[in-house]
Amino acid sequence: MQHIHFEITGKTILTLLLLLALVAGGLALVWLLVGPGIAIGIGLGLVLTIRGLFALFKPHSE
Asked: Can you tell me where the transmembrane regions are (predicted)?
């Protein structure tokens, strides 16, 4: 079984928080300009995409 090693530094956490804030701000802007249905759809699409990427790169147990 292969093991993947990640080092999480303070800069990594700060970058992830900044990215999360930008995505939330973008969805809020879409909510205000276009409507809640589109913003909810985009948000669900992002969640499903991220979950799919985690499942893709997660080591499988045999």
From this structure: 12-32, 38-57
